Amino acid sequence: MADKKFVVTLGRTCGSGASIIGKMLADEFLIDFYDKNILRLASDDSGISEALFAQADETTRKSLLYSVTQKIYNGETIPPESPDYTKNGNLFAFQAKVIKELAERESFVIIGRAADHILKDHGNVLSIFIYAPLEKCIRTEMNRLSLTRKEAEKRIAEQDKYRRAYYKYNTGKDWESPYNYDLCLNTGELSYEDCVEIIKSHLKIRGLI
User: Fold this and answer.
1) Under DSSP, is residue 148 helix (H, G, I), strand (E, B) or coil?
2) Residue 143, SS3 per DSSP
């Protein structure tokens, strides 16, 4: 296993427990778990401040642009002399560049960031979508963040709407389509521990570990 490198990408619905599963899996293999910390790495790589990457994330959350257009990632980044160097699309491209470079040199688990699409041509990737029935997601978010039911419902609706739009904008594909993933796991039926074991088994079947 020490000589092999693999990546597990996790797409997820809000409240499905994917972050917990991802961290459990990373701990199991003693590898890194990446989420928003990928912004810091992209900042280091591009020389663009991490604050700009975070701002781009927040801007895209608030923008209605995603509902009417797409800017599908094609693997290119814009050179520093371009006036579009710090535009949101280029910031995504730098995140993608960092994710690809990481995949060449280490094993890791990464959540979100359309990483399954970014690494679709990389051989040692297992892409997974974690979801759960809405009622379970609501209860999870209520307990996790001490929210009222109404607050949890609002948070879930907003988060999933954003993730759906972000994925469509950058990949041209539907976020919840099973065709994008190797495995879809329902945490309404499976425990987090079950999910980790299933993922490990699939990695073995694929010959990735």
Assistant:
1) coil
2) helix
Task: Please list, in sequence order, all residues whose beta carbon lies within 8 angstroms of the beta carbon of residue 70, skipping any fewer than 6 positions away.
Answer: 168, 169, 170, 172
Q: How far is CA 43 from CA 17, 51, 90, 102, 209, in A?
A: 28, 9, 12, 14, 31
Percent of the chain as helix, strand, coil, to the nearest 5: 55, 10, 35
pLDDT of residue 86: 42
Out of 3.40.50.620, 3.40.50.300, 1.20.120.530, 1.10.443.10, select the CATH number for domain 7-192. Answer: 3.40.50.300
* Residue 65: predicted pLDDT: 44
Domain locations along the chain? 7-192
Render the burial of 38-50: b for 16+ CB within 10 Å, e for the rest: bbebbbeebebeb
Strands 125-131 and 183-186: parallel
The reported pLDDT for the residue numbered 190 is 98
Predicted TM-score (pTM) above 0.70: yes
